[in-house]
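Q: What changes when magnesium ion is included in the input?
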Amino acid sequence: MQRLKGIAITHGAAAGRAVLLVHRGRAIRFPIPAERTGDELARLDLSRRRSRAQLESIRQRIGQGPGSELAPLFEAQLLILEDPMLIGRAADLIRTEHVNAEWAVQRAFDEIAHVFDAIEDPYLRERRGDVEDVVGRLRMNLHDGASAAPRDLLRDVPGPFVLIADELSPSVAAQIDWGRVRGFAMDAGSRTYHTAILARSLQIPAIVGLHDATARARAGETVAIDGTTGELIIDPSPDVLRSLLARQPTRPDVVPAPSGPATTRDGVCIRLEANVELLEDVAVAQRHGADGVGLFRSELMLGGQPIDALSEERQYEMYLRLVEGMAPRPVTIRTFDLEESRAPGRHGGWDAADRRTSEAERTRNPLGLRGIRLSLARQELLTRQLRAVLRAALAGPIRILLPFVSAVEEARAARALIGGVVRDLRAERLAVPDVPVGAMIEVPSAALIADLLAREVDFLAIGTNDLIQYTLAVDRTDERISEFYRPLHPGMLRLLRLVRRGAARGGVPLSVCGEMASDPGLLAVLIGLGLTDFSMTPAAIPAARRLIESVSAADLRAAARGALALSTADEIEDYLARAVAGVEQGSPLGERIL
Ligand code: PEP
Ligand code: MG
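A: The predicted holo structure follows.
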């Protein structure tokens, strides 16, 4: 028996057979049953044939026009595609290790890259990039394609099980049928990592930040998750298992919770909406009494696919389901908040223009071409999304929320684009309504100019997850520095106060949709700072309602004033622990301050 300590995301316990999901670079390794290796080999072959056809057509097109000097490059890529060291090796791996084609291709590339790295001649060494390009194309063509629904990545693994991943991005998480997952553990991650948020909203016992769980646990052995202590127990003894599962809380409310605004003892109305990651969450939000959807993270609809994989029609169907599921309550759709890595070149693939950006740069750069910046740089994609959203607005109230806004110009440009799409749709005889447009406040510059942004948009929504990470310079996905991620840092309290004042000066509604709102203790502080609109993980709404109904807003305001006079996060936490007595205990963060 081994115990690994991490960060508890959801209270509750779970035990079951371990399924390991290991991520290498941008490919994920998952097991394929022996009898399905033939199908996997066929996928690999289809991808090779598609890649060949694409490369031949590029070579031909390029050979005839300007840039013909690049034609040999594509000839070289065609040769690489047929090289047994790549496809042949990947096929061998599928046959012998029973793994998925994406991972096999990645592994084969790693082996080749190793050889290239050892070459002295710089010209030859650089040919590694050509192989990488071919691998990128193969991987892209292994995707199901725009029309097919994202596949359940673990569809061949019999459930239920406990999923242990090294790093599971939200887009990959969206390709998993969570109904079969009893518990979830991850090497990487922090409390605000998107997949952690997803696990919390699905109320699956989960622990993140375990560092090396995938190295320590073996596939198939029994593991247990203790969401109270934040421990993953590998091969637990029968006694430990029994006492752990005996402590398991009963599954939460199946009876619909009350809805509508919650009112403090002194009569302040607080609006409680839900953050929704998947369409299935709409029913959960309804059940927990959400007054609307305050944040729909639309990019998660993509699963693992690139940004241009979803047609206008497909998006329209999804938004329609969302709006109809929540009607008559409003739904706030955030436009795609993606990084550049998910936006292939204009010609639909990793084409020559993309070669300038290295794989590593494209893979992860949360401070790069992201959110509204990417949407404005790729206006055809934003236009497609907006058309789908605005068409769905005929079925019920929708608000559009712009992510990662850092300057007034971005809000203006997005509004102009939205205005144009509305005009086009009306010219097509669709009576689309005027839809409120809001900006997320999650970059410090946006917080500092909240009053100026308030003149450009109809509402503001504070994304505390990112606002904390960028203000305090703490990568929210890096568990090694999670101790520096302090929502109650005095700088955060000041910034939140500034945003509240800026929104009031501009006369626009302001909400909070970051994870801070899901924590009853921190929610109390936010109410004390004068905030009244919140959007949170659906499962957190009933506790938030109980908290609100048990406190007086005036008391919380006095407590927040006291906290604002202090100098350190520790002092503020200690002070609030005494000042906000009697407030319901909630998540571990709340327990720390209350
Ligand atoms: C936030 O940053 O607080 C937020 C709600 O957006 P996300 O968690 O999707 O980055
Ligand atoms: Mg954010």
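Observations recorded in class: The first strand starts at residue 2 and ends at 5.
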